[in-house]
Automatic annotation (TrEMBL):
Residue ranges of the TM segments: 12-31, 95-115, 127-151, 171-204, 211-230, 288-307, 314-331, 354-374, 381-402, 429-451, 458-475, 738-759
Pfam (any one): YfhO
Protein name, per record: YfhO family protein
Keywords: Membrane, Transmembrane, Transmembrane helix
Database matches in InterPro entries: Uncharacterised_YfhO
Length: 774
């Protein structure tokens, strides 16, 4: 007789299944020649990580994008997040996919541990965990790596919160988790954790102690992450995120009709599949596709949620999460939309993101439901499920009749060019409802088996498998992969590096002109073709990957001054290029024939419909002017430049400066570093004024022959200084203004953390164990 498997090995079965689930969903990105590429992956995350390792050390300034930006302060870069070191070891596509899989697995494992410690058996806990990890929303996060990284630690915060650790040790663990989320690249995940933790504390005992632990951990976590938090707060004050209006509140809200998608997979069609999505009126945001590509929770998960809901604390916790998530995700349509206009909610874009709270709440309910089903579900709970199934059958019959009527109607109308276009949505809806009905019917078989034989392990395994198939079948359609060749250096980059010269000139990409040349992308193949074209024409931030500096590029955080200047000259982009010493212009061959007298054609790529021109009189990064005009502030400077009466090649509008005229000067020996600039300036009698064509930002200092001088804001967004008569060595350098205070906060936080851990060692490892109420 064979001996049973050693018990220790059984402990690895559940983690192994969860790892398989993560690989089944996201592992395609680890295959040779395949890569994630959609949305911010190619255009933002890749350039950000490329810049991080190109700059080396602890980068504080990013010279590659938007005429210069703070780098450490850009919290989305995740400079201090240890797992991001993988980008320095592997190629970007491999590191990105590896981080996705590992974080997805660790996040699932955290929820599994939480559910197990709430008294749920292994298979129900696994079912609830898969109901969390394989949903359409979680699959969509494959396009937002830092968001997936931060969210990973929210379930672990619940594990720490409900643990029986001593107060000091619990506070230390929670603070580490919060600090980790803050530096992960997605600070909003810390807000998710705060909301989840607040709901948990509201439903479970020892509220006072738990609140004290949370408040202390939140404060200590912020302190530990101070070297990231302090620079980020300083950047927030200077960026468009710190403005008085919340312009993005109306973008990417959860449309009420999309709540149908909670139970039905793609009821309005697929965004990149067949049948094609048709309800475009529901999408309002910076892109044509919603932030949450899918919000499918799973019809099997919802059935389990109904079976698992009961009068206990765990159900109250889960339902409260669902209600809170729904209210926040509706955005401007929500009765609590006013909350989104105030801190901390106002700092984060796109209310659709709060669907994650609904996902987590339903996952907890599904775990309870899986247990209830296996043990023999309440027949009363089966009534609403049966009613829902009957409505779904009725909907299928109605769709069939409606299709026949529509076909008959169009057959009688000779002018109907495409009858199929009108009945397509009905066919799609019928297919979606039919799919859900199939899974409900299969669940019905398992319910019948459970009623006949309560406690059956076969039924428990069947429920687990059914939930996995239901969710994975839909979620896989949301994970889009392309060829890894998208990450190869395009031929244009090498050519532009030759043309940039030394000291290098910047690029200015004419996005609006080039957009008209972009290929269509309403299919997976079309999307890959579009990304190949975008990579070939260096869209967004891609020039920075290859060491080229750009004036116009996409950023999750934009400086107010840079944004205002871009808006003033939206119809005259060449003027912005001139101000920032962006001599090379990337435009479309469709408009290259309209090149003005101040430009010359350098490169023409008919296959990409792209042309590269150069300003024939492009100023240098460090240049002098012959006169200055005093202005009160940025608004006055921009208004003067918008009038068209300012020759910025010869005149500088100086905030808080003086109106003065200068003779011609010489600038030589220019050296440009990642966060510095040096030059030798020979000024005539009366001195001169030197303009540095880089974004002005607190932290930039300047010296003349080693003596510090005042740096002035120039032309609304740039900076400059007055140089006295004679030959002088000028140097600009940047140190993040909040770096040292943030570093001090981090050191204080780490010392306090070590003290807590030391004090906690004087007591037992845990408090006296007590069963946690559910």
């Amino acid at each position: 007789m064979a001996s049973p498997a050693p018990r220790p090995l059984a402990r690895f079965v559940a983690p192994g299944l969860l790892l398989l689930a993560s690989l089944a969903l996201l592992g395609g990105g680890l295959l040779p020649g395949r890569a994630f590429f959609y949305r911010d992956v190619l255009h933002y995350y890749w350039p950000t990580q490329a810049a991080r390792f190109a700059l080396g050390g602890l980068p504080q300034w990013n010279p590659f994008h938007q005429g210069g930006l703070p780098f450490l302060a850009d919290i989305h870069a995740g400079v201090l997040y240890p797992p991001n070191l993988l980008f320095g070891v592997f190629s970007f596509p491999t590191a990105y996919a590896l981080l996705l899989v590992l974080h997805h697995f660790v996040g699932q494992l955290g929820l599994f541990v939480f559910l197990r410690r709430k008294g749920l058996e292994e298979l129900p806990a696994l079912t609830g965990t898969l109901a969390f990890g394989l949903t359409g929303y979680m699959a969509g996060l494959s396009n937002f790596g830092p968001l997936a990284s931060g969210l990973t630690w929210t379930p672990w915060l619940l594990v720490g919160l409900q643990s029986q650790l001593l107060p000091m040790r619990k506070l230390a663990v929670l603070s580490i988790l919060i600090a980790t989320q803050i530096v992960s690249g997605d600070p909003q995940s810390a807000l998710y954790s705060a909301l989840v933790a607040a709901v948990y504390v509201a439903w479970f005992p020892e509220r006072k102690n738990q609140l004290v632990a949370l408040a202390g951990a939140g404060a200590l976590g912020l302190l530990i992450a101070g070297v990231q938090v302090f620079p980020t707060l300083a950047l927030l004050a200077e960026s468009t995120r710190g403005g008085s209006t919340v312009s993005y509140l109306a973008n990417w809200n959860l449309h009420p009709l999309r709540m149908l998608e909670f139970a039905f997979p793609y009821p309005f069609g697929e965004y990149l599949g067949v049948p094609q999505f048709w309800a475009w009126f529901m999408v309002k945001g910076p892109g044509s596709i919603p932030f949450a590509v899918s919000v499918y929770l799973g019809v099997t998960v919802l059935v389990l949620a109904v079976l698992g809901a009961k009068r206990d604390r765990l159900t109250g916790f889960a339902l409260s999460l669902c209600a809170l998530g729904l209210l926040l995700s509706l955005g401007e349509r929500s009765p609590v939309s006013f909350l989104l206009e105030h801190p901390p909610f106002r700092f984060f874009r796109y209310p659709e993101k709060y669907v994650i709270l609904i996902v987590l709440g339903c996952a907890v309910l599904a775990a309870s439901g899986a247990r209830a089903l296996v043990n023999g579900p309440s027949k009363k709970r089966l009534i609403p499920i049966a009613v829902a199934a009957a409505f779904m059958v009725g909907a299928l019959l109605f769709a069939g009749i409606a299709q026949e009527s529509a076909q008959g109607l169009f057959a009688s109308l000779l002018q109907a060019p495409n009858p199929q276009a009108a009945i397509g949505p009905l066919e799609n809806a019928a297919s979606s409802v039919g799919t859900s009905l199939f899974f409900m019917a299969t669940m019905g078989v398992l319910v019948a088996l459970a009623l006949k034989k309560p406690g059956s392990r076969t039924v428990a395994l069947g429920v687990l498998a059914l939930v996995a198939v239901d969710l994975l079948w839909t979620a896989r359609k949301t994970v889009w992969l392309g060829p890894a060749s998208l990450y190869d250096e395009p031929a244009l980059a090498a050519r532009l590096k030759e043309l940039a010269g030394s000291p290098p000139t910047r690029l200015f990409r004419m996005d609006k002109q080039l957009k008209s040349s972009a290929p269509p992308s309403r299919s997976p193949e079309g999307l890959v073709n579009l990304r190949e074209w975008e990579a070939g024409t260096l869209k967004s931030n891609l020039s920075g990957v290859f060491g080229l500096e750009e004036v116009s590029s996409y950023g999750a955080v934009e400086l107010q001054r840079w944004k205002a200047l871009m808006e003033v000259f939206a119809q005259r982009p060449q003027k912005v290029a001139e101000l920032y010493a962006g001599c090379l212009l990337l435009t479309s061959t469709m408009v290259a024939g309209a090149i003005g007298p101040g430009e010359q054609l350098l490169v023409s790529e008919p296959s990409l419909r792209l042309a590269v021109t150069k300003l024939t009189e492009c100023p240098q990064r460090l240049r002098t002017v012959t006169r200055t005009t005093a202005v009160a502030d940025m608004n006055e400077a921009l208004a003067r430049m918008a009038s068209g009466n300012v020759d910025t090649k010869q005149e500088a509008l100086v905030e808080g400066g003086t109106t003065k005229t200068y003779g011609p000067a010489e600038v030589g020996n220019v050296e440009l570093g990642p966060r510095s600039a040096r030059a030798r300036v020979v000024a005539p009698a009366g001195g001169t004024f030197l303009v540095f064509a880089t974004n002005t930002y607190p932290g930039w200092t300047a010296t003349v022959d080693g003596n510090e001088v005042d740096v002035r804001a120039v032309n609304g967004a740039l900076m400059g200084l007055e140089v006295p008569e004679g030959a002088h060595q000028i140097e600009f350098t940047f140190t993040d203004p909040a770096f040292h205070s943030g570093l001090q906060a981090t050191l204080a936080g780490v010392l306090l953390l070590l003290l807590l851990l030391f004090v906690s060692r004087r007591g037992p490892d845990t408090q006296e164990e007590a069963p946690a109420p559910t």
